[in-house]
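Subject: sequence -> structure tokens, single chain

Hey, anyone have a minute? Need the predicted structure for the following. Not urgent.
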Amino acid sequence: MGIDDYGGGPGAEQTGVMVVTTNDAPGYRVERVVGEVFGLTVRSRHLGSQIGAGLKSMIGGELRGLTKTLVQTRNQAMERLIEQAKARGANAVLAMRFDVTEAADIGTEVCAYGTAVVLAPQTS
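Reply:
Had a minute. Here:
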């Protein structure tokens, strides 16, 4: 069973980088800690979605346009995290987290971060 077979996050099969929120990966041992990696993106909402969200918030319910934007934003932050891990020679990211903040009233900043490592299968 290799890293690509583990199913460690979106795109692990294509990227060869396992991404997990845990501090370890069962069946693998950490050979080397590469260090902290992150993927950052800032997105602003267009005027139409802001007006629509404002109207929707008055009557309640899911803000689907904003949900879709946030999912896309998190995926982009994750892709950048994986790119940085690969560029530094890692094949996995442990303890991955997201941090989301408002960026000066112009948009939303999403940061995916974790610890890049080189993993190897555990031997019995």
